[in-house]
Amino acid sequence: MSKIKVTQVKSKIGRLKSQKATLEALGLRKLNQTVEHNATAPILGMVKTVSHLVSVEEIK
To answer: Which residues belong to any copy of the Large ribosomal subunit protein uL30-like ferredoxin-like fold domain (predicted)?
Structure first.
């Protein structure tokens, strides 16, 4: 199973409650914070929901 590194690059101020909740669920609480996750379907769905706020890289 591959892993991904997710970094928050834009602020959650002024965003929808659901987008804020998705960032929290991913473990992102601060700007420029990075977390690692397994690339499972639920995680990739959450990343897609907030794709305009985060950057994603695959870890080899």
So the answer is: 4-54
